[in-house]
Amino acid sequence: MAEKGEKEPLELTDLPGIGEVTAKKLIESGHGDLMSIAVLSPRELTQLAEVSESVARKTIIAARNALDLGFADASKVLERRKEVIKITTGSVNLDALLGGGVETKAITEAFGAFGSGKTQVGHSLACTVQFPKEKGGANGMAVYIDTEATFRPERIRQISQAFGLKVDQALKNVLVARAHSSDHQMLLAEKVSDLIREGNNVKLIVVDSLMSLFRSEFVGRGTLAERQQKLNKHLHQLQKLADAHNLAVYITNQVMSRPDILFGDPTAAIGGHILAHASTFRLYFRKGKGESRVAKLIDSPNLPEAEAVFYLKAEGIRDK
Q1: Can you name the CATH fold of 12-67?
Q2: If 0-12 CB within 10 Å is exposed, 13-18 middle and 19+ buried, where does residue 182 land?
Q3: Model-level pTM greater than 0.85?
Q4: DSSP-derived 3-state class of residue 181
């Protein structure tokens, strides 16, 4: 129910040209909210809803007007930023590096060699997102898309127990799916909207790892353009989910060694410029001594490059 003086939010069927049958088609195709309609082209909506291009254009304009997607002054943008939630990683040092934690409405990428802690941070976030907001959580659930068979429910049990969560409930609040191909991975991301419509308060999506299946399916330079186009679509889908539902996206990424680098660290993230530009925050993880790991903030819209040390413990991510 809208507050007094506020407009009631529009439903799909309130848009011109969208009846019950057409709305059902759009929902089944993963376009069940106004934002997903507003960002479509008339041609795309014509194919999805089987309406004429002129009707599709009117529908899209109505969705955009309802969402007020025009210009706004910076003070209004600042006001909207108050909706953003910072989800703790479990490490004060790592949270400080990220300006308070992993942000909702953003994609946070962590890349590094095997054993650098990327997956462990994903497991920890799947637990901490369940915390109340005043304790660094989002009172929410996690969706975990596993592409490398590295998800372990035992870790969720172990970490949630250490954090004082009810273990059985913590396990139920992590919805896991194993992706078997890049198409399956993209389909699973699209299904997150359905989960939310069914009443699941999803506030975190973990994709571990983002590039594994793309890397194995698209081999050689001849397939690079197709891979990048597909990857770009997947990343835009994840960002749309983050914006539409005020949730955080945490993705892990593989690395390669660059032989042309003669001095310094030759490790580089894969995925090219498309992934680099799509990620709001980019973290490079590397091993330190023993259980310690070093996280370097490579890119951020508002934070300087810096480093932080955290530790991988049985209880999750810690400072020492």
Answers
A1: DNA polymerase; domain 1 (1.10.150)
A2: buried
A3: yes
A4: coil
